[in-house]
Amino acid sequence: MRDSLVRRVPLYGWIGLLLIAASWPAYWTVSGAYSEDLFILLWAGYVLVVDGLGYARTGRSLLTGPPVRWLALLAAGGAFWFSFEIENHALRDWTYLTRARHGRLTFDLVQAATFATVGPVLWVTTAFFRSIPRLAESRGPRLPRLAPGALGGLSVAGAVCLAAPMLWPRVAFVPVWFGWFLLLDPLNAALGGRSLIRQAQAGRWGTWLALTLAGLTAGAFWEGWNNGSAGYMWTYHVPYFDSAPHLFQMPLPGYLGYPPFVLSAYAAYQSGVLIVRRVGPIG
């Protein structure tokens, strides 16, 4: 069975593996002005490998969809992460160390390319976990049905979570990771879009689990690859957690931010789908 799965991996999955094999050692051993930019190649290889594994399990691939979907996913992933970069101007939770090694324009272009990988990385990883039938079909307790007023209240709470770090960064650095989910998922539910709240009300928890595992998996690779690089790309200064045990550069409690982050990314994506449906398809 395992041998059959390996033989079903498409050619681009093996190309991705070769890309990782070539760029990973260089990223961890070569120190220079542009060596950290290999991070983008690592993630390109990751996307090819994980999507290829998902295809081997299900026969479905995100990579072989319409090109416009991938262009939108790259742009949306970059824009979504950039919102957290704006928040970080107040929070100062992480600092990029490569800024001093590049000119401003080069740094901004490299950052934009790196941010754009966020969407594809999260979606191929989520799709891979959803390719595991027992996980994708997970059932559990049903969340009580929420009245429209309660959904609106959750959206207001999400807006507060996004605004609070700008005003009180020392105490509101945790809620920011829940903000987009609380703001957008209730709106998706109210407007008839795909909503994690609605899925929980039906007792369907498979997407919740797949997203949570995808966030933790991608987070471990993000932090692990950064920690082993010849020159760290970023470092953390998280209030109250700097003295906690670390896994790589990240304090262990910081990993709890990855699940709500990917839940927020899902809600933002589904809101985008709603907008496209109402405005009309792109292209």
Keywords:
283 residues; mainly alpha; 4% strand; disordered C terminus
Topology:
Layout lengths: L1 H6 L3 H19 L8 H21 L8 H25 L2 E3 L7 H13 L1 H13 L2 H4 L11 H20 L8 H15 L5 H6 L4 H23 L5 E3 L9 E2 L2 E2 L6 H22 L4
Antiparallel strand pairs: 1-2, 3-4
How do the strands of the widest beta sheet line up side by side? 1-2
Counted beta strands: 4
Query: Which band does the percent of strand residues land in?
Result: under 5%
Overall pLDDT level = 85
- Rg of Cα set: 19 Å
Biggest beta sheet summary: 2 strands, antiparallel
Order of helices and strands: HHHHEHHHHHHHEEEH
* Low-confidence sequence ranges: 279-283
Count of helical stretches: 12
Q: Which class best fits the helix and strand makeup?
A: mainly alpha
Percentage of residues assigned to helices: 55-70%
Distance between the termini: 41 Å
Kindly report the oligomeric state of this protein. single chain
Q: Globular, elongated, flat, extended or rod-shaped: what is the shape?
A: globular
Q: What report would you give on this structure?
A:
With about 280 residues, the chain is mainly alpha-helical. Helices cover about 65% and strands about 5% of the residues. It contains 12 helices and 4 strands; from the N terminus they run ααααβαααααααβββα. It has helices at about 1-5, 10-30, 40-60, 65-90, 105-115, 120-130, 135, 150-165, 175-190, 195-200, 205-230, 260-280; strands at about 95, 235, 245, 250. The strands form 2 sheets. Strands 1-2 form a two-stranded antiparallel sheet. Strand 3 (about 245) and strand 4 form a beta hairpin. The longest helix is centred in the N-terminal third of the chain and has 25 residues, at about 65-90. The radius of gyration is 19 Å and the shape is globular. It starts with a helix and ends with a helix.
